[in-house]
Specification:
Layout lengths: L2 E5 L2 E3 L5 E8 L6 E8 L6 E6 L6 E3 L7 E6 L4 E6 L8 E9 L6 E3 L3 E5 L2
Parallel strand pairs: 2-11
Antiparallel strand pairs: 1-3, 3-8, 4-5, 4-9, 5-6, 7-8, 9-10, 9-11
């Protein structure tokens, strides 16, 4: 069964850091582009960062450029999001997402992990 499981969320003070992880199972991880999305209260879902299946390219939302870094380990079937200089606007549920790099209709979602930035 295909599965994405996020971990690493929690409460952090403004200016702090968190590292989210997503463990994949049940599909061939190395042929999926992986992304992190987030949904803040009362807001639309936002694409935060994407990394290509081979790990050779990545893209970021303007709101997180220079602060967040996405990475993947195809040997361990994991993708991570390192988040630095967090602020209150980063408070959201963060979701791991995988999309097949050729067959775009094949995609999987994790259940999400809460990140709260507050003093």
């Amino acid at each position: 069964q295909e599965q994405l499981v996020e971990s690493g969320g929690g409460l952090v003070q403004p200016g702090g850091s968190l590292r989210l992880s997503c463990a994949a199972s049940g599909f061939v991880f190395s042929v999926y582009d992986m992304s992190w999305y987030r949904r803040a209260p009362g807001k639309e879902r936002e694409l935060v960062a994407t990394i290509a299946s081979a790990g050779n390219s990545s893209n970021y939302a303007d709101s997180v450029k220079g602060r967040f870094t996405i990475s993947r380990d195809n040997a361990k079937n994991t993708v991570a999001l390192q988040m630095n200089s967090l602020n209150s606007e980063d408070t959201a549920v963060y979701y791991c997402h995988g999309r097949h790099f050729v067959h775009f209709s094949v995609e999987y979602w994790g259940r999400g992990t809460q990140v709260t930035v507050s003093s």
